[in-house]
Design a protein that fits this description.
434 residues; alpha/beta; TIM Barrel; 8-stranded parallel β-barrel; two-stranded antiparallel sheet; 14 helices; 14 strands; 41% helix; 17% strand; binds beta-D-galactopyranose
């Protein structure tokens, strides 16, 4: 008997990779991130990025060759609606071709409608701080679904609303660079209601148009929060508060159909009720909680002996299991919409992927209705403030030539996706005792 057993996944399980428009396309000159980059806040500007805008067929060919059956990407709002209320037919056609290219390759599209970037005109009007943002976003969503909805079976409304809020409005390290809790709570509430409205609009339009009924969900980043010292009340409070706000607030508000504290007082909204067909979980790491008056110091604290990624995140696969189990109470199917590692050591990436998939499988054995695993990312790309310095891809991008080269982890992942299982041999090879 070896140390490992085969981990078999149910048929129809989705295996994929994710990217996001701004991080791979290049030349998204008309959004708030481009401006943020020009102001010098990021290690590099996104520039031409991976030129995925022109090379999407090549990237989708790679995804297909790797036996993947789904691909998660986003539609860039600032391309579709370059000026308020003005639609770009050229860009709509572009995304239609991208969606068709996925279909031709047997890749189920999972489409994100908002992935951190806002059109410049929207940001300049006050962005998500304004209550009108909800309807303005809904108008864009309606347009996308009308034009492209025949080709989209899965929608992610808003990517990681709490990351957007915390980094943009509490820590001030993402645009618009605010540190203002009142604004943060306002934006959180508007994103929540925008999600709910988008959910309704997507289903309405698909019905009107006779498109196949899609699945619409949130994509939520969660972290495990644990006190550094379980006997120190301040550490315990910090962990509980972070969990309640960062991990739970958004989900609990949808679950209850009412805006929960601290961004509301339990006001009910008809549109919020049942506004999800699935939960998308993005999982990267655990955060050890200490107490410090500076909120940014409380972020990214890791145990002394932790294995770290190039983002200085702790590798903590068990956290994925814990969080998946914690989602059971909502009674919705779950997709891991992102899980990944920045590392210059691809063997570390192989181990990371295997260990996380094994934890996901453990959660399924305990009744979690997990339907897919999507690795972040297919290709190295523009990692926001970190520029191009952090490499998440199972496929390497040479930024001088833009040549794509699959890494060993790509072939390893392809084997899992192709067989719909993780064999004991594969685990023995990468995780076995030496
Ligand atoms: C997520 C985000 C992605 C990607 C990833 C890696 O929070 O959705 O855009 O950057 O993290 O850090």
């Amino acid at each position: 008997m070896g140390e490992f057993r085969d981990l078999v996944f149910p048929s129809g399980f989705l295996w994929g990779c994710a990217v996001a428009a701004h991080q791979v396309e290049g030349n998204n000159t008309n959004n708030n991130w481009w401006k943020w980059e020009q102001e010098g806040h990021t290690l590099d500007p996104s520039g031409i990025a991976c030129d995925h805008y022109n090379r999407y067929e090549e990237d989708l060919d790679i995804a297909k060759k790797l036996s993947l059956n789904t691909f998660r990407t986003s539609i860039e709002w600032s391309r579709i609606e370059p000026k308020e209320g003005v639609w770009s037919d050229k860009e709509i056609k572009h995304y239609r071709r991208v969606l068709e290219a996925m279909k031709e390759r047997g890749l189920t599209p999972m489409i994100t409608l908002h992935h951190f970037t806002d059109p410049l005109w929207f940001a300049e009007k006050g962005g998500w701080e304004k209550p009108e943002s909800i309807d303005i976003f809904a108008r864009f969503v309606r347009k996308v679904v009308e034009e492209l909805g025949d080709l989209i079976p899965f929608y992610n409304t808003i990517n990681e609303p709490m990351v957007y809020v915390v980094l943009g409005y509490a820590f001030g390290v993402f645009p618009p660079g605010e540190r203002d809790i009142i604004k943060a709570l306002t934006v959180a509430k508007h994103l929540l209601l925008a999600h709910a409205k988008a959910y309704r609009v997507i289903h309405e339009v698909c019905k009107e148009k006779g498109y196949p009924k899609p699945k619409v969900g949130v994509v939520h980043n969660m972290m495990v929060f644990e006190p550094l010292d379980p006997n120190d009340e301040r550490h315990v409070n910090e962990a509980n508060t972070s969990d309640a706000i960062y991990n739970r607030w958004f989900l609990e508000s949808i679950h209850a159909g009412a805006v929960q504290p601290p961004a509301g007082q339990g006001e009910e909204f008809e549109e919020l009720k049942g506004a999800w067909d699935f939960i998308g979980l993005n999982y990267y790491t655990r955060n050890i909680c200490i107490s410090s008056p500076d909120p940014t110091r409380r972020f990214n604290v890791v145990p002394m002996d932790a294995e770290l990624t190039d983002m200085h995140y702790e590798v903590y696969p068990e956290g994925l299991y814990k969080l998946l189990v914690s989602l059971k109470k909502y009674g919705k199917p779950v997709y891991i919409t992102e899980n990944g590692i920045a590392t210059s050591n691809d063997r570390q990436r192989c181990r990371f992927i295997l260990r996380h998939i094994a934890e996901a499988h453990r959660a399924m054995r305990e009744g979690v209705d997990l339907k897919g695993y999507i690795y972040w990312s297919l290709i190295d790309n523009f990692e926001w403030n970190e520029g191009f310095s952090k490499r998440f891809g199972i496929v390497e991008v040479d930024y001088k030539t833009l040549k794509r080269t699959p890494r060993e982890s790509a072939y390893m992942y392809a084997e899992i996706a192709g067989k719909n299982k993780v064999t004991s041999d594969l685990m023995q090879k990468y995780l076995g005792r030496k």
